[in-house]
Every structure is written in C-alpha cells, then in structure tokens.
UniProtKB/TrEMBL annotation:
UniProt-listed SUPFAM superfamilies: Metallo-hydrolase/oxidoreductase (SSF56281)
Coiled-coil residue windows: none
Full protein name: Metallo-hydrolase
Gene3D superfamilies: Ribonuclease Z/Hydroxyacylglutathione hydrolase-like (3.60.15.10)
Pfam families: Lactamase_B_2
Domain (Metallo-beta-lactamase): residue spans on this chain: 20-200
Length: 271
C-alpha cells in the first residue's frame, strides 16, 4: 500500500552508513531531522533527492560525535540551510574550528541522558563507549514508535540496553569481521583500537547486542557502519542471521534483517 504524505507516522531512511560517512534521515508530519552528517553537503542532498526529499525541509541536525565520518557536513549544512544543531558540550568542543562558524542561535546543547522534544518527536540521547570526546547516540520516539541508532561503541552496556530495549527499529553496528581485521593490513595499534572496549562492534558483537535488545515490537533491523577494509555486507548479514537463528530468533519472519550502504540510501520506510 503506498505511503501518503499526510500519514501520521515515523519514517526513516539510512542515507549512508559505513566507515566513510554516516547520516540518517527521520521524519514525522511536523519535523524532518538528520542524525549525523558525515558526508559533503552535495552528497547528502543527492541522497535526500534519491528518497524524494530535500535538505531544504530539514529543520534539525543531531550530532553523535566529532569523528569526520559523522560530522564532515555539519558546518556546511548549518550555514546553508539554517539548521538547529544539537550535540553535547564535549562534542561541540571537539568539533571546534573544523566545522567552521555556526550562528550561536543554531547551536544547542543536548547532554547524554537528556531528551529533546520537537513537537511530538522526542530525541533521547545516550552514552556509548567509543574513543571520541563524549560520544552519544539517539533513540527517537514518535507516538508509540521508536527507532534506536547504536554504532561506534566498543561494547553494549546494560545501561545502554535499558535505554534501547524493544525498539520498533534499529540501526545497529556490525563494523568488522574479527578474522578479517586481524589478518588485514591495518597497523597493530589501529587493530587494537578497533577491537577494544572503546572501538567498534564486530559482526558477532552486533548479533549478541541485538539479541539482548530486541523485543516483540521490533520489526526492522538495519546492520550498519561496516568497515570497507574489514567486512563484507554479505558476511555481516550471514553472521548475524546465523547467530540469531541459532538462538531461535525468527529472522525475516518476526522482523526484517536489512543491509545499509555507504553510498546508497535505504528506502524511506514507516517504522
């Protein structure tokens, strides 16, 4: 059944997800927001156009942390489109001059554990374990629906699970295959960083985190933030699917297991 513009729903598209750039688009009838802008303004507009939308209608941008693959386009988008930009103090400090000047009235502080309400859309922030200054991700709520983004974390804590459990949809990290990473060409200190508790979730870690987090409401799971060097989309998908099926989760029956891409947006979909 086609979606119409006046439907009162929470809709999401993963515009880009991967080690080269990340951005997620979320819309309700009254608000259009981005979570992260880790690509150029030109590329983000192309991705928005591919789902029948434009950056001109986006009103708010929520930044998770200062790493370039999440913040590259923050300054450009803020200046070009007049967006309200939300991040915690540590992230604002770390982004600093790298994103250029943003008008003070556009800069907003949202600390971990706080909720920013935009009409009926609530954006809840939560801390993750990553080697950025003060990384946080977001669980968006609209009416009785929620969509949680969990990437760039070295592990899934019990506190994090308490925030994101039983969401209707997830974007969940499956950054690397452990053996590909260990056997690959990265310098050993970088391998140690990725594998550490302040690094990234492996395919197996992602599967284990999802099995603890999802609930009866969960209908869509997007696997995200795959490394270009240390993972393959089909391998990540198969690993998560096999592990979940091995624990009696009805993959592609109770919920859809979906892939993301660093250069191609997923369909704009009702959550």
């Amino acid at each position: 059944m086609p979606q119409t513009e006046n439907e009162d729903n929470l809709k999401v598209s993963i515009l880009a997800s991967g080690s080269t750039g990340n951005a997620t688009y979320v819309e309700t009838p009254d608000h259009k927001i981005l979570i992260d802008a880790g690509l150029s303004g030109k590329k983000l507009e192309e991705l928005m156009n591919s789902i029948g939308r434009t950056l001109k209608n986006v009103d708010s941008l929520f930044v998770t942390h200062e790493h370039t693959d999440h913040s590259k386009g923050v300054g450009v988008l803020a200046r070009r489109y007049g967006l309200d930009v939300y991040a915690n103090e540590g992230t604002w400090e770390a982004m600093g001059s790298r994103i250029g000047k943003i008008a003070v009235e556009q800069k907003h502080i949202l600390e971990p554990g706080q909720v920013q309400s935009l009409g009926g859309l609530d954006v809840e922030s939560f801390s993750v374990s990553h080697d950025a200054q003060d990384p946080q991700f977001y669980d968006v709520h609209y009416h009785n629906k929620s969509f949680a983004i969990v990437t760039d974390t070295g592990y899934v804590s019990e506190r994090l699970l308490g925030t994101i459990s039983d969401a209707d949809g997830y974007l969940f990290e499956c950054n690397h295959d452990v053996e590909m990473l260990r056997m690959g060409g990265y310098p050993w200190p970088l391998k140690q960083r990725i594998l550490s508790d302040t690094g990234h979730l492996s395919n197996e870690d992602g599967a284990n985190g999802l099995m603890k987090a999802l609930g009866n409401r969960t209908k869509r799971i997007y696997l995200g933030h795959l490394s270009q060097e240390n993972n393959v989309k089909s391998l990540a998908h198969l690993t998560v699917q096999t592990m979940m099926q091995g624990h009696d989760f009805a993959v592609d029956h109770d919920f859809a297991l979906l892939d993301t891409d660093p250069t191609q947006a997923t369909d704009l979909t009702i959550i």
